[in-house]
Amino acid sequence: MTTRDTQTKRNAGGNPYIPKGDGDESVQAYIDAMPGWHQGTGQWIDRLVEEHVPEVRKAVRWNTPFYGLAGRGWFLAFYCYAHYVQVTFFKGVQLDPLPPKASKQDHVRYLAITEDRDLSEDQLVSWIQQAAALPGEDVF
Q1: Radius of gyration of the chain from its Cα atoms, rounded to whole angstroms
Q2: Which residue has the higher pLDDT, 6 or 86?
Q3: d(Cα 27, Cα 93) in Å, to the nearest integer?
Q4: Rounded CA gap, 38 and 23, in Å?
Q5: How far apart are CA 127 and CA 108, in angstroms?
Q6: Largest CA distance in the chain
């Protein structure tokens, strides 16, 4: 179910300003505040991570949901832009195949998910599982 949050402030690209917080409640607040079709994409990413990484921990920092494993660091985050939702794989250069978008940081790779979601769910699940199996980043 998609709900529209009209109270949350957003930047020019639509990314919601959500207070720093730990746990699923903070991530759900972020997802609930995502505009339009972005919200369904956020729900999809969140569901896939939960289904395929049962021990996942979540947090919101810098208006961005983070996913990680206790004692292992963060493996994935996403951010809402006007025309896509960008998924960050912190150790993306170790994934096979490589997520399509390079970063200024040597080990990070990105995936831009657009409204048409022209992406195989199986491929996204594979990247999520691979990323979760790697040592994560301690980004905060």
Answers
A1: 14
A2: 86
A3: 26
A4: 21
A5: 13
A6: 40
